[in-house]
Amino acid sequence: MTADRTLDASGLCCPVPVLKTKAAMETLAVSQVLEVIATDAGARADLAAWCRRTGQTLVQTDETPDGKLQFFIRKTK
Predict the structure, then answer these.
(1) Strand 33-38 with 5-9, pairing
(2) What value does the mean pLDDT of the chain take?
(3) The pTM is what?
(4) How many angstroms separate the CA atoms of 10 and 17, rounded?
(5) Fewer beta carbons within 10 Å, N or C terminal of the chain?
(6) Active site residue 14
(7) In the structure, what pLDDT confidence band is assigned to residue 75 with cuts at 50, 70 and 90?
(8) 14, 16, 28, 58: which is the annotated catalytic residue?
(9) Where are the extended beta strands (E) located within the chain?
């Protein structure tokens, strides 16, 4: 998947990845995609819940070969 912007939240713990994601999404236009990279295992549930609450679309979640979590979030609003 291709992202319009990447946010590296590696090494940050809850709730910082979600707060940084929110700020980064505000810079995107509707339909653009943000890639978020995180190392906090809680980010998987936190970002999914944030997307549901805010109406954004969690398009894809992956784990990179080095164990980092990778999220692709499409701005819908």
Answers:
(1) parallel
(2) 96
(3) 0.94
(4) 8
(5) C
(6) yes
(7) very high
(8) 14
(9) 5-9, 33-38, 57-63, 69-74
